[in-house]
Design brief:
heterotrimer; A mainly alpha (about 190); B mainly alpha (about 220); C alpha+beta (about 190); B: about 220 residues; mainly alpha; about 0% strand; C: about 190 residues; 4 helices; about 25% helix; extended
């Protein structure tokens, strides 16, 4: 299945706007349809941004609850997905700041500690692990920009709306993220030869 | 005669206004209700003295409020305020009279933590016209971590010379903290990290820091 | 080699686009939290929106417009969050926005936690922390660039240094304090924070 390009292309049947109207009308259970619809897509971003599945699930739960609480302020219910994603991006940012304040170790070390006891047995697993380490070594703002552009495959204008950052600054962050990732992954590849 | 009486009366009015206005202008409203009268008077005198020397009063007020918040005795509060005033004056001698309040506060912290006076001068010399508050704050923190003064100063000056961004200065200090927590000696941690920080920042640093704000 | 290196990032992105699983019961947990959450009134949401720390992109004109609006509200006496007296550390212009710093303390036995420091006139009553669950207390403050000394105040009487921050050197009053350093655009580059 080809990855969806841009959040606006996510399947709209049943219509997000109709579900939002039902929820606002009192049908709380209908919100579960929206949760099921978006959780996998957003899980990918949250886990890679935070480098920790538990943190990511908490951030996602937080985002879904906040979205529910402020559903009445969603100006365009037909674009619930991008609106929710914006909330999730902000939740992930808050968690990054929270983690940097609470912990004396960087994200990459937490990832290393977590995976320390589980050695990948296959080449694919090892490659994945190296990518995740490299990703975790990026400055959070570069990581965010890289994930939004190259993993979530958003257009720069969409990214600008999500993050509130100018397109030119986003392009610079993406370029630097790519340069840094390339350096890190090349080091790994050279060492493996 | 009438004219002389008028002049005398005017003079008395001016003198009365001066007496009333003088002490009122010196009183900092932030101290209201936080210090007993005796302590407040002594702190206000220290503030006046600082202002007369052109030193910023805000950090001194903050120090007094810190003491009040922590339930310190009046004597201890006054002593702390005077000590800080002295440190701010020393920092200003090293950093120059155009230094911002933030630079003086960070410089004072670095001096208290054990930085040599020449360290502050060298940091300023490496970055003329550019803000150095974060550099000095990092210097203070490194010294507090136990990094030897010469090593700490050399590290901060190297990073200043490499025009490392504020964010990376703070991250450098966090890295040193972590390495020390993992068992590295403070001096080695600082030396190793300064090299990688300066190298990494060479890839990303394109924004020169803005020139310092001058204190009013 | 050049061909390999250019492919590396593209290959990494492709790997990262693989779906990420979530733990079993995620949907159920989210819906349980949603059902417990009440949807507040628009006024409460508006107030929470005002209080929430956020990263905002402001053009120079936008900054002027916002400053003018704030000035108008201050004049009308409606803006309840205006701090008393001069508050060093509260950013006052787009040129010195510094960063939003999250202060966190784990104090499960505490009934109330506040923070006192250079940024709030050492007045703990002005800045209570919010219980975030599991014994964690937190507050986010926007701080202008500078170096700040602070301490947590537990149950109004006990001074506790921040375990996640450096200690203030040579404390003048015999109680522990911590320091935080905020640089210019520490979490950001190219836009107002």
């Amino acid at each position: 299945m080809a990855p969806a390009k841009g959040l606006g292309d996510v399947a709209t049947a049943p219509d997000d706007a109709q579900i939002v109207r039902r929820v606002l009308g009192g049908d709380v259970d209908a919100y579960g349809i929206l949760v099921a619809r978006y959780r996998d897509r957003f899980a990918r971003y949250a886990v890679q941004m935070l480098g920790d599945r538990e943190d990511a699930e908490e951030a996602m739960q937080d985002a879904f609850v906040r979205a529910y609480r402020s559903l009445a302020t969603c100006r365009d219910p037909g674009r619930f997905g991008p609106w929710l994603f914006r909330i999730l991006v902000n939740r992930c940012r808050t968690r990054v700041v929270l983690r940097q304040r609470r912990s004396r170790t960087f994200v990459r070390d937490e990832l290393a500690l977590e995976s320390a006891g589980v050695a990948p047995t296959d080449e694919r697993g090892a490659w994945r692990e190296e990518i995740e380490r490299a990703l975790a070594a990026l400055d959070p703002l570069y990581r965010e920009a890289f994930l939004l552009k190259h993993v979530e495959e958003l257009e720069y204008e969409e990214m600008a709306k999500l993050t509130g950052v100018r397109v030119s600054a986003l392009k610079m962050r993406v370029k630097r993220a790519c340069d840094r990732l390339r350096d890190l992954l090349q080091e790994v590849q050279s060492a493996a030869r | 005669m009438k004219q002389r009486r008028l002049i005398v009366r005017l003079g008395l009015v001016v003198a009365a206004v001066s007496v009333v206005a003088g002490p009122a202008a010196a009183q900092d409203p932030r101290l209201t209700g936080r210090l007993d009268a005796g302590t407040r008077a002594a702190v206000e005198a220290a503030l006046d003295s600082a202002r007369a020397q052109g030193l910023p009063a805000d950090p001194l007020v903050t120090k007094a409020l810190e003491g009040a918040s922590k339930g310190a005795t009046g004597a201890r509060i006054v002593s702390a305020v005077r000590r800080l005033a002295g440190e701010l004056a020393s920092a200003r001698t090293m950093l120059g009279y155009a230094s911002t309040t933030e630079e003086l506060v960070a410089g004072a912290a670095a001096l208290r933590a054990g930085a040599g006076p020449s360290a502050l001068q060298r940091v300023r010399a490496v970055r003329p016209g550019a803000p150095v508050a974060v550099h000095l704050a990092v210097l203070a923190d490194l010294l507090a971590d136990g990094v030897p003064p010469d090593t700490a100063a050399a590290a901060v000056i190297a990073l200043a010379r490499a025009t490392v961004r504020d964010a990376d200065l703070v991250a450098f200090r966090q890295s040193v903290d972590r390495d020390i927590a993992l068992g590295a000696s403070p001096g080695s941690a600082a030396t190793v990290r300064v090299n990688s920080t300066a190298r990494a920042d060479a890839f990303t640093n394109t924004t020169p820091n803005a020139p310092p704000r001058r204190r009013p | 080699m050049r061909h390999d290196s250019e492919d590396l990032v593209a290959r990494a992105a492709a790997e990262l686009r693989q779906p990420t699983g979530l733990s079993a019961g995620f949907d159920a947990r989210v819906m349980a939290a949603v059902r417990q959450a009440r949807r507040p009134s628009r006024w409460v949401l508006a107030w929470e929106w005002v209080r929430e720390p956020r990263l905002v992109a402001l053009s120079p004109l936008g900054g002027l417009a916002m400053a003018a609006s704030v000035a108008a509200l201050v004049t009308l006496g409606v803006w309840a969050a205006v701090p008393r007296g001069v508050t060093p550390g509260v950013a006052s212009s787009s040129a010195e926005l510094g960063e939003v710093v999250q202060f966190v303390l784990h104090a499960p036995a505490a009934r109330a936690v506040a923070i006192a420091g250079d940024f709030n006139g050492w007045d703990a009553e002005r800045t209570p922390l919010v219980a975030a669950g599991s014994g964690v207390w937190s507050v986010a403050l926007r701080l202008a660039p500078g170096r700040y000394t602070y301490t947590f105040v537990v149950d109004g009487t006990r001074f506790v240094a921040d375990p996640a921050a450096p200690r203030a050197v040579g404390d003048d009053f015999g109680t522990p304090s911590s320091v935080v350093t905020v640089g210019r655009g520490t979490m950001d580059q190219g836009r107002a924070s």
